[in-house]
Design goal:
Elements (H helix, E strand, L loop, with lengths): L2 E3 L6 E3 L1 H16 L12 E2 L1 H5 L9 E4 L4 E5 L4 E2 L7 E7 L15 E2 L7 E4 L4 E5 L2 E4 L3 E14 L2 E11 L2 E13 L3 E13 L4 E8 L8 E10 L1
Parallel strand pairs: 3-4
Antiparallel strand pairs: 1-2, 4-5, 5-6, 7-9, 7-17, 8-16, 10-11, 11-16, 12-15, 12-17, 13-14, 13-16
């Protein structure tokens, strides 16, 4: 039995039965498997509905139906607290006669790689929506990389570019230059870029190879995106 004396009145009070029963109730509550009726359910919303919210307060919670994650408002953005890496990896490999690298001098073409070539897609924030086209559903800073190689690059000086487009506008070159080869040979290029993206932005990876309208055989094509 627990007792205490009030500092002002000096009256001795007994807490034994009340405290003992309270501890028993708490122990029973945490010691038993929860039932559905004891669980708390937060509001559900799509990413579009979440983006349209106004007057949010820091610490608010909502369940994102699109990403299947619990989001909280950290003061300026809705974010998902997760230890899961948020990374997308696309890879297409082919050593045959494929003519995958189409070209026309100084003209951009989309990377010929899509959702069927996903090797990894974690974090629930990436949507591969077309050849070389990826949509992100969460605002953040992203590290983006792309690469391709061919087995029949022509001799001489051949101009090449890997460009990154955001919502249709060119935002930077991941790689750019001239391949200078004495003979037709295997060749490849790659590059990276860090860029901030908003929720529902679409990034597009495109290339230029000046080979006088003659397609080339791709050995591999790769795209990688990681939220930092």
């Amino acid at each position: 039995m627990f007792q205490f004396v009030t500092p002002i009145t000096g009256v001795r009070k007994v807490l034994g039965p009340f405290l003992f029963l309270s501890l028993i109730n708490i122990t029973q509550c945490w010691g038993q498997a929860p039932s559905v009726g004891n669980l708390i359910k937060v509001h559900e919303a799509t990413q579009t509905e979440i983006n349209s919210l106004s007057n949010e307060e820091e610490g608010m919670l909502i369940y994102n139906e699109d990403t299947k994650q619990l989001n909280f408002f950290e003061g300026s953005n809705w974010v998902a607290p997760s230890n899961t890496s948020k990374t997308l990896v696309l890879n297409r490999a082919n050593n045959g006669n494929n003519d995958l690298i189409a070209n026309r001098n100084n003209q951009y073409f989309n990377f010929p790689i899509n959702a069927s070539h996903e090797l990894s897609n974690t974090g629930g924030i990436f949507q591969t929506v077309g050849n070389g086209r990826i949509r992100v559903t969460q605002t953040g800073t992203y590290l983006m990389s792309a690469a391709f190689s061919v087995r029949d690059m022509p001799s001489g000086d051949t101009k090449y570019i890997i460009g990154l487009f955001v919502n249709g506008a060119l935002r930077g070159y991941l790689s750019r230059g001239f391949a200078s080869l004495p003979n037709r040979d295997w060749w490849g290029t790659s590059g990276t870029m860090v860029y901030p993206l908003n929720a529902n932005d679409e990034v597009l990876f495109r290339y230029v190879v000046n080979n006088n309208n003659r397609p080339l055989d791709a050995v591999f094509i790769n795209i990688g995106i990681t939220q930092l």
